Amino acid sequence: MAAGTIPTPVAEPFVEMRDIAKTFGTVKALAGLNLSIRPGELVTVVGPSGCGKSTLFNILAGLEEPDPGHTLHFRGKPSTASALLGQVAFMPQRDLLFPWRNVIDNAILPLEVQGKSRDEARKLALQMLPEFGLAGFEKQYPHELSGGMRQRVALMRTFMFERELMLLDEPFGALDALTRAMMQRWLLDVWAKHKRTVLFITHDVDEAIFLGDRILVMTSRPGHIKLEEKVDLPRPRHPDVLTSTAFIELKKKLLASIEEESMKAFAAGSAIKTH
Ligand code: ADP
Ligand code: MG
């Protein structure tokens, strides 16, 4: 560092994990995974199908305990994964809305679980609807909504569970390209306003770059982080960045890294998996 420069203060990691492994019977899903997420960051995780992205997500959400022999710190203190349950807001890969509940009653689920009265929760949710592009749709049922709207209800539900860390597992994976691009821009606006820390899992490299402050590339199974790239693109992100030289250079690097992993997985005969 040059003499006289003031070092940028680095916030203490919100979550820090070392040597994470997870075995399911004979399948080693994760091994030797290190991860740290700092407050306010939007970290994207990208990797080949079946590399353990959702497994990592489930550990961070407190739904799965990793194999023994790891360390995990939450807000600077030693923690277990299961203790993260309730501390973290998460939207699983297959986030199904309850078909028998309308938009507003799907959105308020986490508040009801926390013991808030339905009326009070509904009032709060009604105020949030416009921001999620759902104004006027509160009485609609999931089957009456487009795919993009259903995802926004699920995201609103995740935002309503007010936790500093939000985990999103391929939230836009099932959407068509145009809807997906709109949702990405919208999510960045909402994120900028609410200032949450986000871990966003995707298998789409463009999405990982467009959204992220930092991108983590996972190896094929057993998954760990093989590459970490900072995204030096200005915010707010404009769709024009998608064709910028910096974006394309970074994309090439990430694709090469992922392709190498996919080839390894393919050679091992384990690449075929749909999510
Ligand atoms: P990704 O989300 O990257 O596609 P997953 O984390 O879903 O990958 O899966 C990683 C590997 O672990 C896969 O081989 C999957 O079949 C296996 N796996 C994940 N969850 C379980 C589970 N609950 N029981 C058994 N195997 C599992
Ligand atoms: Mg997955």
Q: What is the CATH class of the largest domain?
A: Alpha Beta
- What small molecules does this complex bind? adenosine-5'-diphosphate, magnesium ion
What is the percent of helical residues? 25-40%
Choose one word for the global shape: globular
Query: Secondary-structure element sequence?
Result: EEEHEEEHHHHEHEHEEH
Mean pLDDT score: 90
For the sheet with most strands, the description reads: 6 strands, mixed
Count of β-strands = 10
Kindly report how far apart the N and C termini lie. Answer: 44 Å
Spans of at least 5 consecutive residues with low confidence: none
Task: Note the beta-strand portion.
Answer: 15-25%
Q: DSSP helix count?
A: 8
Question: In brief, what are we looking at here?
Answer:
The chain has 275 residues and is an alpha/beta fold. The protein has helices at 53-60, 103-107, 109-113, 118-128, 147-160, 177-194, 205-211, 245-267; strands at 15-24, 27-37, 42-46, 71-74, 77-78, 88-91, 165-169, 197-202, 214-218, 225-230.
Describe the structure.
- It is built from eight helices and ten strands.
- The chain has 275 residues and is of the alpha/beta class.
- It folds into two domains: 22-88 and 163-269, P-loop containing nucleotide triphosphate hydrolases (Rossmann fold, 3-Layer(aba) Sandwich), CATH 3.40.50; 97-162, no CATH class.
- Strands 6-7-8-3-9-10 form a six-stranded mixed beta sheet, with helices on both faces. Strands 2-1-4-5 form a four-stranded antiparallel beta sheet, with no helix packed on it.
- The N and C termini lie far apart (44 Å).
- The model has no long low-confidence stretch (mean pLDDT 90).
